[in-house]
Amino acid sequence: MVITARPSYARIYTALEELRTHEGVELQLVVAASALLERYGSAVSVMEEAGFKIDRQVYMILEGENLVTTAKSTGFGLAELATVFDNLKPDMVVTIADRFETMATAVAATYMNIPLVHIQGGEVTGSIDEKVRHAVTKLADLHLVASRKAAERVIRMGENPDSVVVTGCPSIDLAQTAVEAEPREPAKILSGYGGVGADVDVSGGYLVVLQHPVTTEYEQAFSHVSETLEAVREGGYPALWFWPNVDAGSDNTSKAIRGFRELHDLPNVHFYRNLTPLDFLSILLSSDCIVGNSSAGIRECAYLGVPAVNIGNRQRGRDRGGNVIDVDYDRNEIIHAIEQCRSNGRQERDLLYGDGTAGPRIAEALATATLSIEKILPY
Amino acid sequence: MVITARPSYARIYTALEELRTHEGVELQLVVAASALLERYGSAVSVMEEAGFKIDRQVYMILEGENLVTTAKSTGFGLAELATVFDNLKPDMVVTIADRFETMATAVAATYMNIPLVHIQGGEVTGSIDEKVRHAVTKLADLHLVASRKAAERVIRMGENPDSVVVTGCPSIDLAQTAVEAEPREPAKILSGYGGVGADVDVSGGYLVVLQHPVTTEYEQAFSHVSETLEAVREGGYPALWFWPNVDAGSDNTSKAIRGFRELHDLPNVHFYRNLTPLDFLSILLSSDCIVGNSSAGIRECAYLGVPAVNIGNRQRGRDRGGNVIDVDYDRNEIIHAIEQCRSNGRQERDLLYGDGTAGPRIAEALATATLSIEKILPY
Amino acid sequence: MVITARPSYARIYTALEELRTHEGVELQLVVAASALLERYGSAVSVMEEAGFKIDRQVYMILEGENLVTTAKSTGFGLAELATVFDNLKPDMVVTIADRFETMATAVAATYMNIPLVHIQGGEVTGSIDEKVRHAVTKLADLHLVASRKAAERVIRMGENPDSVVVTGCPSIDLAQTAVEAEPREPAKILSGYGGVGADVDVSGGYLVVLQHPVTTEYEQAFSHVSETLEAVREGGYPALWFWPNVDAGSDNTSKAIRGFRELHDLPNVHFYRNLTPLDFLSILLSSDCIVGNSSAGIRECAYLGVPAVNIGNRQRGRDRGGNVIDVDYDRNEIIHAIEQCRSNGRQERDLLYGDGTAGPRIAEALATATLSIEKILPY
Amino acid sequence: MVITARPSYARIYTALEELRTHEGVELQLVVAASALLERYGSAVSVMEEAGFKIDRQVYMILEGENLVTTAKSTGFGLAELATVFDNLKPDMVVTIADRFETMATAVAATYMNIPLVHIQGGEVTGSIDEKVRHAVTKLADLHLVASRKAAERVIRMGENPDSVVVTGCPSIDLAQTAVEAEPREPAKILSGYGGVGADVDVSGGYLVVLQHPVTTEYEQAFSHVSETLEAVREGGYPALWFWPNVDAGSDNTSKAIRGFRELHDLPNVHFYRNLTPLDFLSILLSSDCIVGNSSAGIRECAYLGVPAVNIGNRQRGRDRGGNVIDVDYDRNEIIHAIEQCRSNGRQERDLLYGDGTAGPRIAEALATATLSIEKILPY
Known about the structure:
The structure is a homotetramer. By secondary structure, chain A is of the alpha/beta class. The first copy, chain A, has helices at residues 6-19, 43-49, 67-88, 100-111, 127-139, 148-156, 171-180, 186-191, 218-235, 250-263, 277-285, 295-298, 300-304, 331-344, 358-368, and strands spanning 2-3, 30-32, 56-58, 93-96, 116-119, 142-145, 164-166, 196-197, 207-210, 239-242, 269-272, 289-292, 308-311, 324-327. In chain A, the strands form 3 sheets. In chain A, strands 8-11-10-9-12-13-14 form a 7-stranded mixed sheet, with helices on one face. The two termini of chain A are 31 Å apart.
């Protein structure tokens, strides 16, 4: 299995846990690209602490963060991974989602005649990721998809239905763990994390806010996040705001939030940095609703039944459950949607993205697959 | 436009001719991979003789001819092409078919945010080429396909119907030139080419034989070609046999033919090496039928109305017209099919692969395209 | 000319200025590696602002900052530069000093049969740079060296004396400009730069302190810089302390300085970030002495006649003038040396590293060189 | 140890044999570049037949055989070898001579901080190899040289005398084996090899001829080899002529020999292809003299005491013993020199290139070396 980024690792974690002890499976881990780098959270260290043995490390990111370096990184990564696959001689190569490293992995496995397993195909998002995701589908020999709709799309693209397995998304497995865990008071969970901003009383309900950048321009980032800040301020509900993860674009969003705070009082908002995934899910589970553009609102909250106000088009195209209200970057729309969420209350659990058993299902699918590298379009 | 092999150049030639003078089009040529190498016929020299200006040459083939080197060549080629596209800044990148260089070109253009045009998508062949061809379809923004069926497949895979244009295959353009040319006597055409084997009288009709290797093992290559040789010998019809082009596998087929000739008399067969494309098509046009596994039997002969005995599964999956009889590697089946072809006589012209205007259509499609790099699966 | 880092650009600046108008010279600039990257000061932007036309940009640094990525970056850079040299077809390639990009440039030029000019060969420093510098000397066809001693070493390594030109170091050219400029009051120069720390009265003389990290371990970095901080604090002289440039190791030195400031009062020290090169040299020129481990103490101050207290072994092996007192990381040694410097006063100008005409000399040497790529060891 | 070509393997063979059983040495073999390729004699197969375990195979030659591809191959090879060294974690890396793969190996080891051992440094030949050889010397930490003169040159270039060991050239070890072997009649040795040309009676003495191409132009290759052919024909002595190994340039030399043979009778010359190294040395040992431009005339024949007529400048700069007479491409000079050789008869054994114990000496030097990657120019 090739892991190339911290979020990919987090998402696939329960499957990895299952695979490392699954009978009949020998797990080889190749860690590559940003998963090796400090400034992206060094997933490799997290993995080693979790007890995983890393078989190969592949440095492939050329500095510069522009179009040329992304294309070149894909090429050099592909060339490196060919060597790695030739050394490790795996029975299959497993790759995740739609990053440039996913493309490099898929092409390398294809030309090495090694069956390719693709996790998270068949989803719809637009942008360059969309092209890459579907191209990888056409290279893959086994498709482990998150939802029934994704399965249907993969099959319509011409893949053999026998090669498509709906496993659900492993991120839901952790949501289920949060649901099943001993209930904990939000205030207690939060007490260990510090953060900045107002003292917020969460005993009577609260919002969770998480807004990632969709632009690299400061002006636009400021205008986007300001609408949400205004809505939260005007509404006056207790709110827990989580900073976006550090990457290129999010610097501007963080800067915009800081700029807003200097100009305005925010007596009902406390800002947090990294909670552990499980703590975050527990906080989410007890919240009134999630606001912003995080995939957690679409995926985990469908399972948790937590209402979500989804702002802008970052999640455009993603299948969504009944818990989601889509709004534009507009404070009034946002306030109105939050009101609606609060009055609707907790939703039915929607198994759209899985039932919490994706890890074992993925492991089982990999352990029992009889893979061929031959395929042919059926129409 | 990226040209990476001599056959690709031959196939696209009429489009290139059209493009270099087409109003509103500035043609930039990147010649890469085997098209630069002597031992693959140095397409680059042929192109320069034909008056084309080559903008960039990209060496990308790592010696070794195995799975690892193919994967690595794809990676290094991708990295190189990124630089080339960054230097040339084309409005679109045009790539052909399903070779590993096609994949490198497509991924490089995708990550450089340059619209990608794919020629010859939507065809069905099996094997690794099949995966690569459809993956490139998912990366491409404009699809110039050879046949209506290919168009239909591309659309079913989720491409926007507005982005799919049936241009026909430019190889048919040359077939049309042969049809329209002043008729010439086959004996006269052949007199300039020498060759080896018996003196064959072609005035009363003749077969054209062209059989490419589908294996790299000598035993199998020998057994495959022997059935055809036996069938032609037993049938006793005048036959013009064309040696396969020199590449890895074809050495064994050539060796097998030579071995057979040492053991058996072939009083009705003359062997030829390279005819010019137009001379070859004229010879084909006057023949009773074509025997073997060349794509010419499937593509050009559909247009020419020349019957074809197609042996084995090299052309499996390719759409075919009524001119084709498929047989196994079996001398009796082959003899029987040749008889049938001869008694059926010339077929109706089938425009399955185009009507001889692919060059201008491709040029027009490229000149008038309004391309976007954004696309989204419609289902 | 290949520029790969901001310090290289600064050092070579006067030669570039000269070359861009020098008769008979066409200057082509290839900017590569860290010179393209924001977090290393984006030399490319500085160059464009200075009016230089950049012919090619080459991204070659693989993220990861370890031994493997450095080796790989050298390899990928070499492969890229081969394409660049093939496109630009220069009469000669000029490379500077002893970085891994210098090695990549030198090997690429060698195998492309392009004469190689090496600037700053023949110096002695130890460590991996030492190996690379002398290996580049053995690949180079023309050597433009900073000092007579460097020339002698290059010749002893077997280079043809006719291929070795002592031009002096172009960094001295700027020092000369500072000397010849209208004298300006230090207080006025500094008033535009802000900075942090105590208000310092520089009218009665002052120290300049500049200490770069020689280790990536925090403990050691702290202990190194603390000795200097203690010495400066105890001595009580007005001091202008310049933060090290941001790079991997210097983060720890900066952190150590901040840590020290939290624990101790520093009533006689003001801290500055970036002065323009010329302002910095003017400040240096008016100072009592420079303290730390900067090459400015060895090179520019030899010319300026400013005494230097050189701490530790960062400048080990570099030829030095009479202005330098070497000491260990020891506050007492440092205090003692500062006292000595102050009592000795301004030194004789030492032309060891040049007389301020390196730029024109380099330009002239390049314009008039008749280069051959053939050479042979004379012994 | 990194082996990149068949001749390098042949030359180092006795050292490898010694190393694989030497106490305290674990031999890791990396086979790369042309040593992996069929058309260069697939040294890797020969090595596996000889029982060597190959630890890694590195494909690094980009097809095209021109300046750009050579430079790029060096770069890609360097990047690959970094991964290999990172995986294998050797205590030292051993590289041979002065090929582009030698450079790639040396730079990779340098940046990976692995001590580098260089075999065959300090020799003088001119051309690009000369630059590369001495640059590798400046990167290497231990120098195992063939001759005392080579040692002296390496030291004069600034290397520490303690790091230079005169081992002799391992090619001499095989010459010694030939000397010590049971004497065998030349006619018997040759009887197994076939070949083409006249029946030659070798019982009364004979010449050995071996002439490699020094040019890739046919006209010049023809003119060079014709002078030798004429000289041999006119002289009328029984001659055994060995075809050059197949590589780019030698095709023309072979073609020129064939052309000459069609025009002229050569009643005293028999042509042979590959003898085993030991058989070739036995034939050499019994011959009157060797004619041509092979390194065997300079190296092995110095030890064997066989006179050599060395034609042209292919061996220019190489140290030579008293057995060599240098001549130009001129039939009269050649005839005259052959006469002189025959009248002089067998020479004194010259231990210039070793005494036949290079293998064990190299093994011992590697087993006992205490290597450091730190070095500094002593002058």
